[in-house]
Amino acid sequence: MVSILELQNLEFIINERKVLKSINFSWRKGETVAFIGGNGAGKSTLLKIIALLSQPSDGKLSLAKGASKNKWKNNLGVVFPDSFLHDSLTAIENLRFYQQIYGKDDKRFIEHILNKVQLVTVKDELVGTYSKGMRQRLSIARALVHQPEYLLLDEPFDGLDLKSKMIIEDILNVHESQGNGYILVSHDVKQAFDLCKRSILLHDGEIIVDEKSSQISLLSFLDKYQSLLERNENEFL
Ligand SMILES: Nc1ncnc2c1ncn2[C@@H]1O[C@H](COP(=O)(O)OP(=O)(O)OP(=O)(O)O)[C@@H](O)[C@H]1O
Name one GO molecular function term (predicted). Predict the structure, then answer.
């Protein structure tokens, strides 16, 4: 399968601390990948480097042949803890704003995506009045508004109710069925396994496991994850 992004011996150092250590990772076209790990494992840092929002301290990041950095950025939709939404605008105004940033103007797609995230009936209300679940669904719509092939999602399900979770899961399943990929950062191993064909366990800046989700048992993955979390806790005692 064609590799769309490759990381070789990647390192990230901040405040003299190695937060990522010799990361090797190849992301293939249409692949759905979970980054799983405890607090401080380096998941968000790695995602920011892949989004080209952070520069690695060492190592190499290569894009597919012919893909410039701008093209890569334009083909990415990101959902990070900061929603990037404007509270004083309505949902539809937010989506128009972000579509324009990407040089697009497609009102029909905005209606379509608002429908998908079940916000059509409140599309003209100010985002400042939205619940957490509604905001997060709108964040997904914002990430998709320019129809990117790839999504980077940092804990998109955190603190959401079941309805919002199911809506977002459904969108991710459709995204994958259209041959598009995503990377999902998650603490929820079961959900990550259900949503991603490949699961990567990170600990203390290193990749500990990198397997097809179908080829490793959820229980043995959970055991490894749990023992790493316990090791972390003991370090703090
Ligand atoms: N800008 C920064 N300044 C200082 N330290 C940072 C910075 N960015 C990341 N770090 C440190 O790097 C380590 C990895 O952080 P990162 O946010 O990538 O972890 P994570 O796996 O996403 O954790 P969490 O699940 O808690 O979000 C942490 O110890 C964090 O304190």
Answer: ATP binding
